[in-house]
Amino acid sequence: MHKIVGIVAGIALFAAACNQSSNTNQQDNNGQAQQAAAPAVKAPSFNADSAYVYTAKQVSFGPRIPNTPAQTKCADWLIGQLKLLADTVYVQRTTVTGPGKKALPCINIIASFNPAATQRILLLSHWDTRPQADQDAFDKTKKLDGADDGASGVGVLLETARQLHAQKTNVGIDILLTDVEDSGVSEEENSFCLGTQYWAKNPHVKGYKANYGILLDMVGGRGSQFFMEAGSQQYAYGPMKMFWDVANRIGYSDRFRYDNIGAGITDDHVYVNTMAAIPTFDIIALQQNGNFVPHWHTSNDNMSAIDKSTLQAVGQTILEVIYTQPFEY
């Protein structure tokens, strides 16, 4: 993914005005706020050790670059893991056109839980690795592990799948693991997120819709902070604000920040929003100045960058939202 140049001014204020929650602190006839009822279902405990192991396993295959043995081996492992956990698993195998009209094999994997439910949440993350460490200080041709940029989001979603298997929920959940996200070039904005673009045009279920989507991208780095990305505020402010509120309520205010830094990212959520018309927000580590974290697209994006406390903050908030207030926005 790469950053959109420019600041989106006032977007949060506009979105907030247009997305007033109708489900929190309702007013009674006397104008007094009524406290929302406590959730009837307790969210399971997210296991950060498990998410870490899932992340490390992906890295162990080597860089998951399209058209390499690591791509095939990791895809087979992901499919096998999800078949043990989900109600239904779909696999999309196709070929997409990358920069320079290069044909790239693409494997999207979709795991559905409670497929009969009409109220659904889409959770997604890319699982491929950028072909080269183009932001490295010395050797921009190096390969990188993609431990945070790719594997960490998938690790959190695999642990989420494990919890969904162990404790059923009435909500329909679809986990979408997309391929060929990071083979693009900055000169061609739409050369990124090719697996997601394919899925948006060819969903795993004809006419597929979800109430909203949550994209995880770089969610495992040590000391990571998550700000409200500009495009996410434009398309999915309501569910995003709900997610941030839950994270802050359960003790992760140091991670999920309300500061409006104005950064907009070209990431998978852009195409889910504009092509699939599913309001989707991006959870992605950024610095206060709007730049990516220092290990982004460098050889330092390895397991030493991964912190279990970051995985815990993201994963526990996901479970809290899914099990206690999935649509209260």
What structural keywords apply?
two-stranded antiparallel sheet, 329 residues, single chain, globular, 8 helices, 16% strand, alpha/beta, 33% helix
Give a quick precis of the structure.
The chain has 8 helices and 8 strands; from the N terminus they run βαααβββαβαβαβαβα. The chain is α/β, with parallel strands linked by helices and 329 residues long.
What does the model show?
This protein is an alpha/beta fold. The chain has one domain: Aminopeptidase (3-Layer(aba) Sandwich), CATH 3.40.630. Helix content is 33%, strand content 16%. A 6-stranded mixed β-sheet has the order 2-3-5-4-6-8, with helices on both faces. Helix 1 crosses helix 6 and helix 2 packs across helix 4. It is globular and about 55 Å long. About 11% of the residues have low confidence.
What is the makeup of the main sheet?
6 strands, mixed
> Would you identify the CATH H-level superfamily?
Zn peptidases
The CATH architecture assignment turns out to be 3-Layer(aba) Sandwich
Number of continuous helical runs: 8
Helix/strand structural class:
alpha/beta
| Overall residue-averaged pLDDT value | 91
CATH class: Alpha Beta
Q: Note the gap between the termini.
A: 28 Å
| Total number of strands | 8
Domain Peptidase M28: 108-321
InterPro entries: Peptidase_M28, QC/QCL
Protein name: M28 family peptidase
Signal peptide: 1-17
